[in-house]
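Hello,

Our lab assistant flagged a job as stuck in the queue for most of the afternoon. It eventually completed. Since we weren't sure the result was trustworthy after the delay, we are filing this so someone can double-check. Below is the sequence as submitted and the structure that was eventually returned. Let us know if re-running is recommended.
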Amino acid sequence: MMALLFSNVTVSDGNREAQFFVAGVPICENDLEEWTAYQKFISGMELGGTVNVHADGYLYGEGSGFTARPVEADFTIRV
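-- returned structure --
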């Protein structure tokens, strides 16, 4: 049996905050760049601003964990 690994990510800049799900556990900015919610958040920031990121990782299912694909991370939160 396999478990899907995904994260609930919160990004904030002191004035705004966004929360979204991603596949796996992000450890650097490159892991977030492909996600539309992150792109929208970054596009609304002032140049030179600071982003605070918090990620909570989750396993959905039983057994060995593997990184969820984007569609699986989205599906998991809707179940």
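-- support follow-up --
The delay was a queue issue, not a problem with the job. The result is valid. Confidence is low (pLDDT under 50) at residues 75-79. Helices lie at 36-43, 70-78.
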